[in-house]
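Consortium newsletter contribution from the modelling node. Members have asked for a concrete example of what our holo predictions look like. Here is one, prepared for the zinc ion complex that several groups have been discussing at recent meetings.
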Amino acid sequence: MTLDTPPKLACPDQLELNGGHPTLMGSRCRNCGEVYFPASQGCTRCCAIDMEPFTLGSEGLLWSWTIQGFQPKTPYNGGESEADFKPYGVGYVEMPSGVKVESRLTVADPAALRIGMPMVLTLEAYRQVPGEAPVFTYAFAPAA
Amino acid sequence: MDNEVAIIGVGLHPFGRTDGLSGQQQGAYALREALKDAGVEWKQVGVAYGGSQDGGNADALSNHLGLTGIPFVNVANGCATGGSALASVIAAIQSGMAEIGVAVGFDKHPRGAFNPRPKDWGLEDWYGETGLMLTTQFFALKTQRYMFEHGITDDALVRIAQRAFRNGALTPHAWRRRELSYEEIAESMPVNLPLRKYMFCNPAEGGAALVLCSAKHARKFTANPVIVKAAVMRTRHHGSFEVFNPGLAAQQSPAPTVMASRAAFELAGVGPGDIDVIQLQDTDSGSELIHIAENGFCEHGEQEHLLRSGATEINGRLPINTDGGCLANGEPVGASGLRQVIEICTQLRGQAGQRQVADTPRLGYTHVYGAPGVSAVTILQAG
Ligand SMILES: [Zn+2]
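And here is the predicted structure:
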């Protein structure tokens, strides 16, 4: 995807945009190598607190999924009316490091989702309120 | 063991919706019922542990029952609040701190799903704002993965809910007392697939209380004490699949339920095959599905066969949630774990009426599980 102006992001610290090819950022324990998303201050596996930034990448395999069938209460701020709410997909995507990242999915059709299918990272305007710049978050789409 | 602890009284304020009563009033009602059942006066109680998520402080119950100066500890462990309170009272009695103790839980939640705040969980706002912070989503994602790994179909989810409402219809104090057909459940609104409307419990209201004392004195108070053979609480390890996790570890590790269950069986010196009547946390069909195996009552993947065979019905080999569980009773978080213990006590005393498990059950089992990865298990024996 290409964007004329830098998009307004819900979670700028979790992403590197790389000119329209977003990548997820996490951290890795310098002591035991365990990888975290989002970046963690300490390692719950070995109890060390020596972490380094780690690039998780932008491709993975669908590990589990559901369809969010009702409009969440706050703190959700999608901004649409209840009548305009459209169910959205949510899943965990297993990244090459083995970490599973929870994410919105660009599809909400059970027939189009299958555990193990390849997924690719994109940006999704989850909040579109008239008179405001849309707010984007990361989402995974089925790989073409 | 010569320092075993016994349950000598149980009390419940029916779960559901009671518009005229606060959560604390429902807790006080349950506590009075438990004291009456034990033949004990509030003045004789030496220690109390209690909790509530949305109903206010448990120690405020002293304002209802009397200000006797006892240590009254407020417990806040989410769905495991009741289990934690119970384990604490038992430890207090075993330590000699008090002769008689009470565990009490109550709640009164706003209608609809819980809406947690990210900061309370150490999470950033975006996680909630972008629509990822929902307990129903978590249960669905965990269930979906579990069913994939163990070859289980939606049929198992429907049967669990169907049995819960069938048992709820036999339980005078249950909230949901209407049996639902297979189709009604299977075709109900998709909340978070694979989980549908009638596969989820609702938050609700209610109160539950227990009176306990040293087992060696129990018969002074009651003809039918229930001995606590084990009461164990455990929290998660790294790699456990728990609620509100933007990322899961590369390697999965056993759930806190597995740890609590193993420790409880070891303490009690019995195995899953010895248990006559069972309560498992069933905030949703998927959770109960997973918990049947995590607590050792079958291998992972055997549940679907078990459910179809009728083994988990009241007249089956492994009667589960004989009062309809959370699905039929709702989940007032502070009270829910103690409601389970009360149902097992009722079964072991042979007082469960239409839903009574036959052939005088001797050993019962309770299990709660909740955020952020806490589990509590008890093993109870007719005294
Ligand atoms: Zn580490």
